[in-house]
Amino acid sequence: MSSVANTVGSIFARRRSALLSATFLALVPAAGAAQDLAAAPAEGASEAIVVTGSRIRSPNATSVSPISTVGAEDISARGATRLEDLLNTLPQVYADQGGGNRGGTVGASGTATINLRNLGNQRTLVLINGRRLMQGDPARSAAQAADINNVPAALVESIDVVTGGASAVYGSDALAGVVNFQLKQNFEGLQFDGSTGVFQHDNGNAIASVAEAAGQRVPTGSTVDGFQTSLALTAGTNFADGRGNITAFVNYRKINGVGTDSRDFATCNLRANATGYACSLSSTTYPAQFQLTDPATGTTRGSYTLGGEGFRPYQSSDGFNNGNTYDLQAPDERINADIMGHFEISPAIEVYGEFMYMRDKADIRLSPTGIFTVAESINCSNPYLSAQQQDLMCNSVGLGPQDDATVNVSMRNAPGGSRHDYTNHTSYRAVGGLRGEFAPGWSYDAYAQYGRTNYSSRLTGDISLDRFANALRAVPGANGTVVCEGSDPACVPINIFSPTGVTEEALGYVQGTFTRTGFTEESIVSGSVTGDLGLTLPFAANPISVAFGAEYRKERIGFTPDTHYSSRDVAGNSGGEYPISGSFDVKEVYGEIRVPLAENRPFLESLALEGGIRYSNYSTAGDTVAWKAGAEWMPVNDVRLRASFQHAVRAPNLVELYGPQRVSTARLSDPCEGANPVATFEACAASGVTAAQYGSIAPAAGQLSGALVGGNPDLSPEKSNTKTFGIQLTPSFLPGVTLTADYFDIKVDKLITTIPATITLSQCIEAGTFCEQIERNPATGSLVTSGYVLTTNVNAGYLKTTGIDVSASARQDLYDLLGADLGLVSVTFSGTRTNKYEVEIVPGTQPYGCDGYFGATCGQPIPTWRHRAQFDWTAPGGDVKLATTWRHISSTRNDRASDADFLSGSYQPYDGKLKAMDYIDFAASFFIEDSYTLRLGVNNVFDRDPPLTASTSGQTSNGAFFAGMYDSLGRYLFASVTAKF
């Protein structure tokens, strides 16, 4: 706080006595709740309002929970066509699903989600006008959250971010907090909003030499790409003497793709060796790798690739670089259309409604598909085999022309190029309700809401494993031709035994188009009543206020992959995907109360208590109770203290419950396998090994064992306790200045997660726990074929984070400081200090901390300090506004440097740290004749590259860096115009 105070003090040191007493600016990225006052009515007003985080209507509403507010002007001033790009700059928000994610099983989904405090998007509740936004994707568990692509950015009046549990007010999913998008009401007139932006980057990163050493093409010089365009039209009119309004909105947005091959620092993934970074190459490569086996023992007798007229020994340098085959920004096209209105029949009855439509089309690019060490039967008479290949594969081990050789094939479909997952999301959301005042001081709000997202995916460029196996069985045909051995008339033989042997016709046969469809659906009926009890305590001026209500909600999910996915026939998804179908409903009642204890008394300008409780009955999770208790105290007008405790719950979502269970592969070393097992017989027996099997379990090929993954219908709800303590200062000797600090402590128990197979197996062998999660092959005792380790969703340990949010804001007329009409200056600052981010993945084991770390276990960086400071100048008359923003992310360390059991490990020292990053953004707004606004700006002015590492993991990993957390495309230049008529 001292640095904040010094900054503010320096601004006002020269002319403190002349400080302007005007209202300070609404804090842009505030981590505290100084902006709670921005939610209050203007001075002298008495209209009751609702503050996000409570349903109680009050003329002087404030919040005991920290609230940050982003205004509509702030959205425009950043040139953001994607709301997630704006939100990710706030210190409380961590990167999640978005346009910069890499394609893959845990990567891009074509959605955009919010992740508060890095507690996961499934623990952040998203609202529009105080009502839920439905889930956005049925296919990927990482995207089982509200898709903010549904939010019409040009219609947003403000974004309220409430950090900390809010389940007592809004229900499940609010363990980390709530993000509420408030849309413009009573819009009148016609408004056009248009914006365009482009990325410019100067390639000059020293890491380029690593790619060049691996023989990769590296871009040089300046690149200009990633064009973004957004066009929006809003029309609204008031009618019936202002008792009604109808507003319509339509927006078209298009974003061009940017490939990893267009940035020198993204040309290849990285690995760390003893001398420095090197390109991380995949052993699944082209030309193919062939592992020849001994037909008598089944053991591998050599790995080969193509060279000269036949095979040569495979070398690690033969690996395939897939780092330059993805996108840094996926091409995306979106349409939003919305209509909303309200009409007051009488003070007791106001009819309102909303209808929102969104269609988003994303082209998610993936690397050329890989056939990952698949055992193939290749006939020794195959005419594509050279004499040397036939001798090595067949003759040398006694196989004749009529025999078949079993060969483990690993191959990238480099001739076919990158795959493309064309993903569509089409969403509908309708709300209809009645509200009004039915008695003095008492109002009601009742509504019905329906939301649905339809999903479709069309994957091109992948390979059918069945067709590939057919095409490998080549035999001589008529007139010197080569044909397939089988009966499929469409089959075209494929020649993977020559570097130039794969033909377009063969690719046309083995490649396919694979589809998935699905939906999520949400139906809500809700009613609430709020008012005052007419009871005022002796030392208070305002009465006790309450709110109570009931809600019914039903959610459904459906997901249908085609038969290629469900039969595990898709090479790039050989684990398979399976149908999902499920639903749950919940019936809830809730209540809140606010009790003013004392007001306008010495050292008791205001003292109030508030509480809330929600009882929920889930058809799946049973009964849950969430509650909150809080207090605020203003001893004097300059100081406001607040504290709250919230007990929140989160019922498991539909994918966590009903995701299909299937056996996938996990890379782990079984200490009970081999002729001389590492573990004792007693330890192995606890995991299911019999005396006859001990010492005779064949090692799993490539250490790839079975893991049962998927949903768990027996999950219990997560439970969370959130504590916050805060202070807000509005010193009267510094009018217009606000300082806040809030401490937060959030702990999530009964965490819904998966326990990695390696941890489960080691816990069983070493501690005798979790052995019931291991199912060995009854005949062989191995963890392959019908053996596996259970890694489905479970209620496990806990997740805890603590820290402090600080914020400051000030506004000053320079005339009062300098005696000259030089306009207005303002400063807004917010920062978050993360003191602890702790995970206990297995109950009873040592927890590990990820605060200040990144890496294979912790995932994206969790910096101990992030801040954002904005400095604005408004010219005399208000026609011009200039803004500079400074964003800071502190350095983080490789989690392998930790001494925690689940983190410690080997790493190269030069890969041990991600440096601190600072970004500077400029923006200028020009207001012309009250009708036109022109904005120009540059984000990441100095074109800072993201910090690079070989230790990335998680859905925000895009090769050698973490997308979303860091700017990854260079400087962003934008221009926008708003025209009002």
Features:
mainly beta; Maltoporin, Chain A; 2 domains; five-stranded mixed sheet; 13 helices; globular; TonB_rcpt_CS; Plug_dom; transport
In short:
The chain has 981 residues and is mostly beta strands.
Helices, strands, pairings?
Layout: H1 2-12, E1 67-71, H2 72-77, H3 83-87, E2 93-94, E3 115-116, E4 124-128, E5 131-132, E6 156-163, H4 167-170, E7 177-183, E8 189-203, H5 208-213, E9 221-239, E10 244-255, E11 258-259, E12 270-272, E13 277-279, E14 289-293, E15 300-307, E16 310-313, E17 327-329, E18 332-346, E19 349-366, E20 370-379, H6 387-393, E21 404-412, E22 419-439, E23 442-463, H7 465-472, E24 474-476, E25 482-484, H8 504-510, E26 511-532, E27 545-561, H9 563-566, E28 580-601, E29 604-618, E30 622-636, E31 639-650, H10 654-658, E32 662-667, H11 681-686, E33 704-709, E34 718-729, E35 738-749, E36 752-753, H12 757-767, E37 774-775, E38 788-790, E39 794-795, E40 798-813, H13 814-818, E41 824-840, E42 848-849, E43 853-854, E44 865-874, E45 880-889, E46 892-894, E47 913-914, E48 917-928, E49 932-939, E50 971-980
Parallel strand pairs: 4-7, 33-38, 43-46
Antiparallel strand pairs: 1-6, 2-3, 4-5, 6-7, 8-9, 8-50, 9-10, 10-18, 11-17, 12-13, 14-15, 14-21, 15-16, 18-19, 19-22, 20-21, 22-23, 23-26, 24-25, 26-27, 27-28, 28-29, 29-30, 30-31, 31-34, 32-33, 34-35, 35-40, 36-39, 37-38, 40-41, 41-42, 41-44, 44-45, 45-48, 46-47, 48-49, 49-50
Main location: membrane
Organism: Novosphingobium decolorationis
Signal peptide: 1-33
